[in-house]
């Protein structure tokens, strides 16, 4: 599939569908269409387990008849199916209640000439190559330590796609993209204790993917380091959150400042604009136009142009994350966040992982979080955790079956330090997070 060559054809389909919607009575309409080709292969104990090939496409349309909205989608892209989809959307709109806040985002906010963000690096979808990489990663992992007893699977994914968005403001733009990933999951055992862990790589361009042997070694190291895990007594101690979990932790803040939560008054960060929600050294920069970025986008899911934003400056929240509907509900203007955030770069306090452990002194280094015990209305936070017990800045032994608890509002304000070594495989690029104190529930 040459995704870049597919875009003109997809744009023609989107244009036809929008014209058809207006002919059938829509006052406004928007449509998005994507085509994706990909492979997913997997091995277990160096034996082939799965080989999958995908060739998907689909179109979704939303129509507005005055202040009434109807949506429909189809995976059948024949002329008859597209016409039927438009008719269904119009029909649905006629039966829905009027909502004065609905409608397309304002015309003046639409993207005019989208930047090329270099998101597409085509490569042959080669199952043999993928299987070879999986076998290589597993081979390296299984040879790492005799306590690695079992592979829980190694998988390679490659996807090439094209996406187009159009609406009746005259927007009809698209872009191709690529994504490659390799992951390895292992099980280790020592004296009756079994542990499971993994490592992975993801990149826009195949050549940027971590090599299979290093992924195998990292997954093996992660598993072996967890063997012999103990429980802890209940206590209050400092907590260091591993950089791989930082995006999950800060993701609760993303939910808290998103328009959908705010207009429903279901956020622990209600009425927090222009107030201090983080330490005064903490900054969050959103940069949507980073070349090759995993969360880069020239426009959001409503065709609104994205732009650089300083979300937090010196701990003070400058912006909520708004799409057109939530913005209107709040009497504000959308700022290009229909569909999520775009490359958050988080400031740090300069310490390496080793220096953060020393700064913590005695406490819990969390490397895995489990469960969904987060109340975004109150900010109450309680999740299962595992990791390492640290004394005098040195890791002593692995820990499992504990719960860490606190309140997100306090946790955000009480971040003591942020590591300089960043996790780059996420839409939130952050280092490890040192929290002043949390409740640990154990024995």
Description:
The structure is a single chain. Helices cover 24% and strands 37% of the residues. The chain is of the alpha+beta class and 443 residues long. It has two domains: 3-226, PmbA/TldD superfamily (PmbA/TldD fold, 2-Layer Sandwich); 229-443, no CATH class. The strands form three sheets. It has a six-stranded antiparallel sheet. A five-stranded mixed beta barrel has the order 7-12-13-14-17. Strand 1 (28-44) and strand 2 (47-65) form a beta hairpin. Helix 3 packs parallel to helix 4 (212-226). The protein is globular. The model has no long low-confidence stretch (mean pLDDT 96).
CATH architecture of the largest domain: 2-Layer Sandwich
Strand-residue proportion: 35-45%
Largest sheet: 6 strands, antiparallel
Give the termini distance in whole angstroms: 56 Å
Instruction: Tell me roughly what share of residues is in helical segments.
Output: 10-25%
Mean pLDDT: 96
Total of DSSP H or I helical runs spanning 4+ residues? 9
Shape: globular
Quaternary organisation:
single chain
- Element string (H = helix, E = strand): HEEEHHEEEHEHHEEEHEHEEEHEEE
Tell me the total number of β-strands: 17
Our Rg estimate from Cα atoms comes to 24 Å
Instruction: Classify the secondary structure makeup into a structural class.
Output: alpha+beta
CATH topology label of the largest domain:
PmbA/TldD fold
Strand order of the largest sheet: 3-2-1-4-5-6
Low-confidence stretches: none
């Amino acid at each position: 599939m040459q995704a870049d060559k597919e875009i003109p054809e997809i744009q023609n389909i989107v244009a036809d569908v929008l014209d058809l919607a207006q002919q059938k009575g829509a006052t406004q309409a928007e449509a998005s269409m994507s085509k994706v080709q990909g492979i997913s292969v997997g091995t277990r104990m160096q034996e082939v387990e799965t080989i999958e090939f995908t060739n998907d496409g689909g179109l979704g349309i939303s129509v507005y008849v005055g202040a009434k909205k109807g949506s429909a989608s189809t995976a059948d892209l024949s002329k008859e199916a597209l016409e039927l989809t438009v008719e269904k959307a119009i029909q649905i709109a006629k039966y829905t209640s009027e909502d004065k806040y609905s409608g397309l985002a304002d015309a003046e906010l639409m993207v005019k000439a989208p930047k090329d963000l270099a998101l597409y690096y085509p490569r042959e979808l080669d199952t043999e190559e993928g299987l070879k990489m999986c076998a290589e990663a597993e081979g390296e992992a299984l040879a790492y330590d005799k306590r690695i007893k079992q592979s829980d699977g190694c998988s390679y994914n490659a996807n090439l796609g094209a996406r187009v968005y159009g609406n009746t403001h005259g927007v009809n733009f698209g872009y191709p993209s690529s994504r490659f990933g390799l992951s390895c999951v292992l099980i280790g055992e020592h004296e009756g204790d079994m542990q499971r862990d993994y490592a992975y790589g993801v990149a826009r361009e195949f050549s940027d993917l971590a090599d299979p042997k290093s992924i195998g070694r990292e997954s093996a190291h992660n598993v072996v380091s967890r063997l012999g895990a103990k429980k802890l007594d209940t206590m209050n101690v400092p907590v260091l959150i591993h950089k791989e979990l930082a995006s999950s932790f800060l993701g609760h803040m993303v939910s808290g400042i998103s328009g959908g939560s705010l207009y429903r008054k279901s956020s622990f960060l209600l009425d927090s604009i222009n107030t201090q929600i983080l330490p005064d050294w903490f900054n969050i920069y959103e940069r949507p136009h980073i070349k090759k970025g995993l969360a880069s986008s020239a426009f959001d899911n409503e065709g609104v142009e994205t732009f650089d934003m300083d979300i937090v400056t010196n701990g003070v929240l400058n912006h909520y994350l708004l799409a057109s509907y939530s913005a209107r509900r709040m009497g504000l203007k959308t700022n290009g966040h229909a569909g999520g955030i775009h490359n958050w770069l988080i400031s740090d306090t300069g310490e390496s992982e080793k220096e953060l452990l020393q700064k913590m002194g005695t406490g819990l280094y969390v490397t895995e979080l489990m469960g969904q015990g987060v109340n975004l209305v109150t900010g109450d936070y309680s999740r299962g955790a595992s990791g390492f017990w640290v004394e005098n800045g040195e890791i002593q032994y692995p820990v499992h079956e504990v719960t860490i608890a606190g309140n997100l509002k306090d946790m955000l304000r009480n971040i003591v330090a942020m590591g300089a070594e960043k996790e780059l495989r996420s839409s939130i690029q952050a280092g490890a997070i040192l929290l002043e104190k949390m409740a640990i529930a154990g024995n």
